[in-house]
Amino acid sequence: MIGIFDSGIGGLTVVRAFMTILRDYDIIYFGDTARTPYGNKSERTVLRYAQENIDFLLHKGAQIIITACNTAASVLIQAPNNSYNIPMFEVITPAVRLSVEASKNRRIGVIGTRATITSGIYEKKIHMLNSKINVYSASCPLLVPLVEEAWLTKPETTMIVKKYLHPLKVRQIDTLILGCTHYPILKKIIHRKIGKKVDIIDSSLAVANQVKNFLKANPESDLELKKNGNLKIFVSDVTEQFQKTAREILKKNISLEHLAI
Amino acid sequence: MIGIFDSGIGGLTVVRAFMTILRDYDIIYFGDTARTPYGNKSERTVLRYAQENIDFLLHKGAQIIITACNTAASVLIQAPNNSYNIPMFEVITPAVRLSVEASKNRRIGVIGTRATITSGIYEKKIHMLNSKINVYSASCPLLVPLVEEAWLTKPETTMIVKKYLHPLKVRQIDTLILGCTHYPILKKIIHRKIGKKVDIIDSSLAVANQVKNFLKANPESDLELKKNGNLKIFVSDVTEQFQKTAREILKKNISLEHLAI
After folding, report:
1. Is pLDDT of A75 > 70?
2. Is B45 in the A-facing interface, judged by CB distances under 8 Å?
3. Which end of chain A has the smaller Cβ count within 10 Å, N or C?
């Protein structure tokens, strides 16, 4: 099975991308809703949570792991003892590659949680591919609660998006990375406010395509994976709000299993 | 020692009230910053967290416990096996009593997190004192992140406060309970938007006064408590943001101890 985890609900946008691009592959998802959000917590705490989540997915039989949370990915990538014996993917690396390919004027913007932006991981990874690219980052801590409240079309949300994007707009970025799995849900407003000419990089599709290419190149890994189109969702806390938003993201009825942590 | 706990940072407004009203009493505080916020989590998860926090404070030598988190208090009050052998206080009961005393037209408003408002605890407790009072409630889930981001004077915050309070304003409430320890930090905007004639009930001062009266009436409990003016703060996650906001609330330098949970 393909194992995907996130701090909560945002990672379901990654599940949606996998269901489009790797249709029929069995997926097991874990959302850490009892400890969500990760984006304003320390590196040390987020690393511990990420490792616990991976261990849970391995225990449940995952043969490939996708870290669908940018905050968790930002600490896992930089962790010294990060050695698992199975293929591991995350949302940052493929989004970085796409953004470097897309940028014509070498001016890339990144938005994410406070923890992701503070880690500087996007800037480091972009500069590893091309040191001449200018990277401008902005943390947008209120966008996660706004998405979780489903305040998607309210004027306050538009004002807050505009305020967060302003420093990137004045830098005349030509490419913008959505460095948090919640942000694709606000893609339309973000695109309108940053300007229609700016390329928007959505990491959920990027990672699904990366895994698709990996499986083509590694048929022995592909053969191990079940393809019955099953989706199993575990969460550490069950709330009505999660169930409602999950249905909205996946456009289908889902059942959740509770994991006490 | 007096033990006080909260889901994170908001409970420091209660610490501040104790430092004013019970000056010199030793306080031990626990902020569950690794799992914050509680307000959008389920009853079952919040109850487990609250019990773990109480056990930690007891283990550290607390002889009185104050639940400084409305969400935690709302589930603890209604929990079936809630029997600790020491005096326990929380922020809901004294605020309810004050609001019933203050209301002239028997129209009380309550604002809080989604979990607190869904629990219906304020309405139940108010009706136990006076069944003829009309209670109008509104959950305000975005106010906690706005306070934690220190967006205290931004126009977006004012708009959101106004939107949340609108249904209470049209009901012509004469008294408003701030049913979340974060809200006293937004007291001025809230007062302006709900109307200056409305009495605002701040539960942090209410519970500190209740404990003061209890200690006067129970000198044997009072004698047990240390009075060296010490404040010890434990958190389950250490972040710069917490340290900054803590200093702003308490108006003094503080040091934090980390508790891994």
Report:
1. yes
2. yes
3. C
| Contact residues, chain B, for A31 at CB < 8 Å | none
Does the global pTM surpass 0.80? yes
B135, B239, B124: which is closest to A46 by C-alpha? B239
- In this structure, what CATH number is given to the domain that contains residue B31? 3.40.50.1860
The nearest CA of chain A is from the CA of B213 a distance in Å of 37
Which residue of chain B is at minimal alpha-carbon distance from A141?
Answer: B149
Same domain assignment for residues B106 and B191? yes
Q: Are residues A123 and A29 in the same domain?
A: no
Whether residues A156 and B159 touch (CB distance < 8 A) is answered with: yes
Residue bearing tokens 């945002």: A10
Question: Closest residue of A to B139, CA-based?
Answer: A149
Residues A185 and A100 in one domain: yes
Q: DSSP per residue over A9-76, as a string?
A: STTHHHHHHHHHHSTT--EEEEE-TTT---TTS-HHHHHHHHHHHHHHHHHTT-SEEEE--HHHHHHH
Domain count, chain A: 2
User: Based on the domain organization, do A100 and A174 belong to the same domain?
Assistant: yes
Look at residue A183 and tell me whether its pLDDT is greater than 90. yes
Domain end marker among B188, B203, B218? B203
Total number of residues shown for chain A: 261
- Per-residue pLDDT band for A82 (boundaries 50, 70, 90) equals low
Q: Using the beta-carbon criterion (under 8 Å), do B149 and A159 form an inter-chain contact?
A: no
B chain contacts of residue A145, beta-carbon cutoff 8 Å? 141-142, 145
Does A160 lie at the interface with B, CB-CB under 8 angstroms?
yes
Written as one string, the DSSP assignment of A201-222 is EEHHHHHHHHHHHHHHH-HHHH
How big is the A-B interface in CB pairs under 8 Å?
57
Are B47 and B79 contacting, i.e. CB atoms less than 8 angstroms apart? yes
Is B40 near chain A, with CB under 8 Å? Answer: yes
With an 8 Å Cβ cutoff, is A152 touching chain B? no
Tell me the residue range of the domain where A160 lies.
Answer: 92-204
pLDDT digits (tens, 9 = 90+) for A190-239: 999 999 999 999 989 999 999 999 999 999 999 999 999 999 999 999 98
Return d(Cα B31, Cα A42) in angstroms, integer. 14
A95-123 average pLDDT score: 97
User: Are residues B76 and B102 located together in one domain of the fold?
Assistant: no
pLDDT confidence band for B169 (50 / 70 / 90): very high
pLDDT per residue over B86-113, tens digit each?
Answer: 999 999 999 999 999 999 999 999 999 9
* Residues A61 and A118 occupy one common structural domain: no
Do B25 and B96 have their domain in common? no
How many CA atoms lie less than 13 Å away from A58 in the CB half-sphere? 12
**Residue B25 and residue B118 share a domain:** no
Q: Which of B160, B187, B203 is the last residue of a domain?
A: B203
| A240 CB-near residues (< 8 Å, 6+ apart) | none
A47 touches chain B (CB under 8 A): no
Q: What value of ipTM does the predicted structure carry?
A: 0.90
CA distance A8 to chain B (A): 11
